[in-house]
């Protein structure tokens, strides 16, 4: 290994006088999988000699007959022979490994011939009977790809969500109820949900009530209430305080009614709250808000970028998000993702970032700031609320932003809810993630669109959501007036 670190692995017994540093102790277990015995528990010792219990791992080798893996292994070794392979038996094994210094972690995975860290070895192992019969007995292949490999690359473990919101608005039939379901690894992804409707149906009010209901928990009469259902179907139960780790609201309209609650980034509160937008609290009166000036927005971006680039996982996620935005030609021309490459002088990166940000159009600034702040703040089980992101973005950038958002949410196992009147956002999500909100006088109701929305034509989606309103406005109206005028002239 390049940095000269060597790891010593002991089997069952540690020779007297051994110094347990940069070493691992494997204890074999007699557990029998159809006459294969491959199970071990591992304690890894750091350079300082601190023990870390990693838990269960199974070890096999090519051409292995029945019996114990242990019998073929020497009492201690630096690395397993080339024809061996191992697999941790639960997500926690890899999560604990992520707490180990990176050089030791990589060396351990290499010496253990781990199939999660080495996909080529997984292919090699997959044809062996010991792999399918014993090593995969309690782990699925999809868990290796979906969960374990994601953990090693710094991602979150994906879980499903099923939660319900009863709004403080509705009609004679009762309060309006919205259901949200997220299934891991679904295609198309189900981690972005959309509330769509014309202006004035109460979309922003709904988002504000949702923020307050989760962050302030309580007052269900004025804010509505949340319930959750477990994997197995209902009963529904009130949402536990820790169901979401944090709520982030994003709003960049000068008219947005999102009020930035005081940021609750201190995690002593049950649910953290982050506001990303144009407003800040007024110094003279804490209840009032004033708008940030361009310099403050640039500072927000630079400080957030600094955080993202200082951590390997966030750096990677920021780079992925920017790459997704580069489907927009203007973004591609700026070569922003280069800033995430290693080896640049941090001060130089900061200067370049400042210069690029200051020369951007307002729409591009807002997207870049939003994405960077989201990479910085969104964590496992966050709920992100976005109010009308289309107000600053042209359609291709809006599509690219929605995709980038979905990928980031997947990486962090988080969920977003977007209030919009743009059919472009609808094209990016399946019908099962869309609530169409209609309001007539005092009654408000929510229903699913009649047609599949994912990948559908924008014209068809516009008709689906706004219906008759489209045929009574704009050029339709002009032509109708003209035709009726012609008809009148003809009659004369």
From TrEMBL:
Please list the residue ranges annotated as the AAA+ ATPase domain. 189-441
Write one Gene Ontology MF term: ATP binding
Top-rank lineage group of the source organism:
Eukaryota
Transmembrane spans? none
Q: What is this protein called?
A: AAA+ ATPase domain-containing protein
Organism this protein belongs to:
Meripilus lineatus
